[in-house]
Request: fold
Amino acid sequence: MDLKYKLGTGRIVKKRDKAYGEMAFNDRYIEFIKQELKENTEKRLKKFELESKKRLLPLEIEASPKEEVNAEFRKQEFEEFTKKQIMPRRAIEQSAKRLAKKSGEAAGNDFRNKKLGELDKKADDYKAKLLAKYPDANEKPTDAAVANYKNTTKAEEQKYTQLKEKYEAEDAKKVKSFIEKIDEKNKKLQKKLDTSNQELAKAYSKNESKLQDGKIMSIKNMKMYFSGIKAVDDLSFDIKEGDIFGLIGPNGAGKTTLFNCITQFYKATGGELYYRDRFGGIVNLSDYQSHDVAATGIIRTFQNLALVPLISVIDNLMIGAHIYYRSNLAQQFLNTRKLKYEEKANRAMALDVLARLNLLEYKDQIPANLSYGVLKKVELARTLMSSPRMIILDEPAAGLNDVETEELANVIRKIRDDFNCTIFLVEHDMNLVMSVCDTVCAISFGKMLAIGTPQEIQANPVVQKAYLGEEDSI
Reply:
């Protein structure tokens, strides 16, 4: 990034992105507050229900036939007795097996039958004791007891309804007050955002002709040389917004190098790289440093997993929200209330992402305990924490079996459709590429071979030759 950009347009971009990040967090925070209030209300109502059941239980017993009540008491107490016999019975089975190995099957069976018989007798004796304690008495409840139970139940239900309405009204009032405060903050942030975008519109006006409508990225005459080696050699193509765009080519074709140029890990030797950001501005990504690219909405995964192995899946996802964290170092060090609320809001977002990708069951597990296929999906889930416009996937199916690859394909489609993302992937698995991509670009030695639909690429003789020879096909 040159000094002129850093002090001029770059400064405005950072100011705009900070305002946008604040507004994006505020929107998520409102949803979190609503959810937190709802959960607290549900807890209070459940507490009331439990207390209500305790109050009603003696009345229910009085209003029920004595035979049914006693039968239920006998059932419950015998179930508790049976649970206490589980471990002794297991111990007898283990001892019988050891005795059978030492002294023969007959000795083991005799031991088992004797000891289990003793436990069975204890169970029968306990049943008889329970029957004496809770006899089969054919005794009907009084009309007064039944009426008392019905009337009290109705009164408890009315209390519950009134309490629910009261809590919901209180929550609605709190949410309204909170939204009003957030709206005031967002109005100020929106002014900053509008001012920044107006200033940037002037700076970006010269780029308007560089990217056609409906396109999210344009790569023109891209070159990347390493000591004379042409890793990317005069490569040009456009990517449609909302596409799943596949980049294929033999090993050493320059695919990952191109990704590194897009995300500014490498500064290209030559060429132009234009991208339509989330505000509709057409920016030259070459002006950015690698750590600033994520703020434009471009998020990347790597060939090797980049999850932190010894923290939970949900904590790994929360790392992906780092570009929207507002708490400064001092607030994080002191673990302030602001930081706690921020973490709660981001955790709520992470839970939502995991649920939508059917990964919620793994939220508290550490990556070290999960299969490689699940980890690949978790890594994709983490990219969504940054609200991306484009996700760049570097060989996402590497190391997966056929079933895991098919599941991954479904996740990629779901991310594109449900999260309004453009997907740009490099992949060697042709089954995945041909099944999931809308457009495929084939390159070799950094040069374009062909671009088109998966079917067109599959039938292209130049691509066939680059991969498998003249007479073969992909």
About this structure: The two ends are 41 Å apart (CA to CA). The chain has three domains: 3-54+146-209, 65-140, 212-468. The longest strand covers residues 215-226.
